[in-house]
Amino acid sequence: MQTSAEQEGTVLHADLDSFFASVEIRDDPSLRGRPVAVGGGVVMAASYEARAHGVKGAMGLRQALRLCPDLLVVPPRPHAYSEASRAVFAVFADTTPLVEGVSIDEAFLEVGGLRRIRGAPSQIATTLREQVRERVGLPISVGVARTKYLAKVASAMAKPDGLLVVPLDDERRFLLSLPVQALWGVGPRTTEKLHAARVRTIADVARMQPGELATLVGSGAAGHLHALASGHDPRPVRARPSRRSMGAQHALGRDERTPEGVEIVLLGLVDRVARRLRTAGRTAATVTLRVRFGDFTSSTASHTLPRPTAHTQVLLDATLQLLRGRHGEIARRGVTLVGFQASGLDDQGEQLLLPLTSATDPGLDTALDAVRDRFGARAVRRGVQLGRGERAHMPTLPDDGDEA
Questions:
Q1: Residue positions in the annotated binding site for Mg(2+)?
Q2: Phi-psi map region of 71: left, alpha, beta (phi>0 left; psi -120 to 50 alpha)
Q3: Per the similarity annotation, which family is this (predicted)?
Q4: Which of 9, 122, 184, 343 could bridge 245 with an S-S bond, Cβ 3.0-4.6 Å?
Q5: Of 90-94, 248-252, 286-290, 337-341, which range is least confident?
Q6: Could you give all domains of the chain from N- to C-terminal order, each with its CATH number?
Q7: Is 329 a catalytic residue?
């Protein structure tokens, strides 16, 4: 749907498609295009191929197999989903500081203040979807609208792997045409009650008096539902609390990587995280390296710095030492993911190391940041990155202990 920037709302609802199943398919390409269910005795998530046979979440596995005899059942891997969620929320954080996580696989984003530097909300949403696909390897659907409610409805209608914008001048028609069960808070029981009273669309709810609606759903729910049906949803997008760590990771796929090639990827990760630390006015006391090998096992190592810092080269040197201790394993076992995290964050100013060298000079970092702010993240790159085909854009992990 083509719209002008002035005709677009500024709330995005981003929702990963069949999250658990998508992570499994990403990590095992042989599952692509096949009906997949994640779970044990109960289906936790189903791919869209499985859903086409009637398989859905919370369904018993026996019933799912009766509906789809070819169903491939994969045991859940909670750590993999948490890791993927953090990487996706990193893309959200790189998009806007106003991110409100709803669950492990969805969030609201407010992008109203970004028009001058990022373009229309629909352009920002398009870039966000591209970045999630590029950095994390997962499909995501996004709705763009004036309110959180309409944005959430739009993202649901955009699935799978789509984008839907609700223009301001079309939102009433869009809203009133929806079935009554699209209202937040209307579940199966309430739907039955409303249908029994011949209330089938949101337009039917909007035409009712609150008192009349209260006789069907109760006074508390009536006010809420009538407000939504009338287009009223004043709830703002509330930003997440200050993070306790920042990090980045990059999925490398199944292609063979040399230890030196992994170092180049790690350089891009550290460079991006260090810049975010400086932008936030924070320093890090500890660096952590995470490597996932070709057999899907992982190795994590950390190092505490002599002084908290946000200097790129200091963080990079410490992390490269951790990586080089794993060169042998990488060459022998292969690598599918590399991640970097800076933790022990502090809001206090940084003590400069003396004597200052070109590698640790904060002026160099500041100058590079200024160039990238003005001309884009790819405006300045290190010589070793050129011609290597490595992506410059890497995601930043949300806080340790965050819901996502």
A1: 15, 105
A2: beta
A3: Belongs to the DNA polymerase type-Y family.
A4: 343
A5: 248-252
A6: 177-229 (1.10.150.20), 245-385 (3.30.1490.100)
A7: no
